[in-house]
Amino acid sequence: MTIYKDVLETIHMIEKENLDIRTTTMGISLLDCFGRDHKESAGRVYEKITRLAERLVQTANEVGDDYGIKIVNKRISVTPIALACANTTEEWLLYAKALDDAAKAVGVDIIGGFSALVQKGCTKSDESFIEAVPYALAETDAMCSSINLGSTKSGINMDAVMKMGPLIKKTAYLTRDTSCFGCAKFVAFANAVEDNPFMAGAFYGTGEAENVINVGVSGPGVVKEALAGMEGATLDEIAERIKQTAFKITRAGQLVGREVSSRLGIPFGILDLSLAPTPAIGDSVAEILEVMGLERCGTHGSTAALAMLTDAVKKGGIMASGHVGGLSGAFIPVSEDNRMIAAAEEGCLTFDKLEAMTSVCSVGLDMIAIPGDTPEDTISAMIADEAAIGVINNKTTAVRVIPVYGMKAGDKVDWGGLFGSAPVMEVNRFSSNQFIQRGGRIPAPVHSFKN
Amino acid sequence: MKAIITVVGKDQVGIMYRVSGILAEYHVNIEDVTQTILQDYFTMIMVVKIDESKSSFHDVDVALHEMAEQQGLSIHVQKEEIFDTMHKI
Fold first, then answer.
1. Domains of chain A by start residue, with CATH
2. What CA–CA distance (Å, rounded) separates A333 from A341?
3. What is the per-residue pLDDT across A239-285, written as a single tens digit (0 to 9) for each?
4. Sheet strand arrangement including A155-157
5. Residue numbers in B near A255 (CB within 8 A)
6. How far is A110 from A200, CA to CA, in rounded Å?
7. Global confidence as pTM
8. Residues of chain A found within 8 Å of residue B47, distances taken between Cβ atoms
């Protein structure tokens, strides 16, 4: 009867608890796409992506059918464009269009990698790239962009951080007709990882092979259900149960990922187990914290609960997969998690509490709507704070905030679909201007000197 | 290739007949069956072997789903490895 129980448990996870493979992301190196001029280079970028990813969507769907687990998103990450296609001639939009067109041609949901790595300094090319990002985001649909601004090894590039406020505000203005949706496609990172399969922050690092398949598995609903009925259990018992559940989810992802990679004849890269919520009922990370015993996500104790959750998920995942990578942990994107939206609307979950929680979650301030008149320097300062948490604690952190044009704190913005809706959150009204305008670099922390 | 078929739905006459009829048509051998009624709900798990030289997993999957839809049943056809990897170390 063991098989009977196991089969029903799996079916239950898929049908009732939203177990799915969140994404198979094909990483594609663009380092060999230089042409004689930018038009030719952009043509090569398009040609290479459409050639390698031609069968990605179909294959992922077939594998999903075979195992009865849906692969929700099919995506592509590419070598950071600022590196692969370095130039100072302001031809960046050619490449943005090439990425966007290629993504549409092969039918993937999103393509990531319109990115730059400037953790220590900007080249002239990087500077012109940063200027082009808002326009690229406004003129494309399926393309995501990210910039890495700091690392534990190099400190924080505050000259570049200074430019992020204007970049985000400009993107918001250019995409004001779609509730500033362009900002939802841009991530400012510290300690960015090279094999992340999740968007909007995925890019394909230069240390990677020609072409790999990375897989992102989710399943907050499954973890929540596993904890239901554990009233009176101690936190070590809860941690243990989370670990066991994470193990099962990861194994499913590992099997599906390996199958996709073997059918496409492309090496399997890593598996990223990140509890990533969706606006669907029951697919919420905040709800897990509430099942653990907090009245609302965001109250005192939320950071501790989230820390334990993230750690237990990592431990279960590491045991289950040969190569765990990416971000692996728990995401806390406000607009994509219906319990987090509710907590924010009730005033329980505030911007400051979210910042505290990012010190223990797997990424950072994610999908947070802020007032449209938030000063540029304030946004840069939020990014500086988040980068500092990442750099000092040796973890990845990121900021994806959306200053919604024309909206003020308390209003509600709705992007629909996977991106959900969010209440516009109050931000601190005191200025960070002089601090941000100093520029320069925040030196690497003392514990980075390990040689 | 081994697959697991799970059928859940309101109990009615002929569920087993319909499922096994389709399986016979596609040359699928039934190796094990376990079935129970949980609060009026028919729940059946079958371990089957698909002879790939005679029919494909995809065709069996489509045929069973068509029948399930007509009969108001929920059916899952999945390759066996998914259960092994998730539940065994």
1. 28-190 (3.20.70.20), 214-443 (3.20.70.20)
2. 9
3. 999 999 999 999 989 999 999 999 999 999 999 999 989 888 888 99
4. A150-151, A155-157, A441-442
5. 81-82, 85
6. 8
7. 0.91
8. 3
Is 0.95 exceeded by the ipTM? no
Residue ranges with strand state E in A118-267: 143-148, 150-151, 155-157, 186-190, 211-217
Structural domain B2-87, CATH architecture: 2-Layer Sandwich (3.30)
Cα–Cα distance between A429 and A410 in angstroms, integer? 15
Of A3, A6, A68, the CB nearest to B76: A68
Separation of alpha carbons A348 and A446, rounded Å: 36
Q: Which helix (H) or strand (E) holds A73?
A: strand A71-78
Q: Is A244 on the interface with B (CB under 8 A)?
A: no
Among partner residues A1, A6, A15, which is closest to B83 by beta-carbon distance?
A6
**How many CA atoms, within 13 angstroms, populate the side-chain half-sphere of residue A383?**
36
Q: Which residues, listed in sequence order, are joined to residue A31 by a DSSP beta bridge?
A: none
Compute the distance between CA of residue A97 and CA of residue A424 in angstroms, rounded to an integer.
31
**Residue range A329-375, pLDDT digits in tens:** 889 999 999 999 999 999 999 999 999 999 999 889 999 999 999 99
Q: How far apart are CA A390 and CA A327, in angstroms?
A: 13
The separation between CA A14 and the C-alpha centre of its own chain, rounded to angstroms, equals 23
Residues 29-48 of chain B with CB under 8 A from chain A are: 34, 43, 45, 47
DSSP string, A12-67: HHHHHS---EEEEEEEE--TT---SSHHHHHHHHHHHHHHHTTTHHHHHHHHHHHH
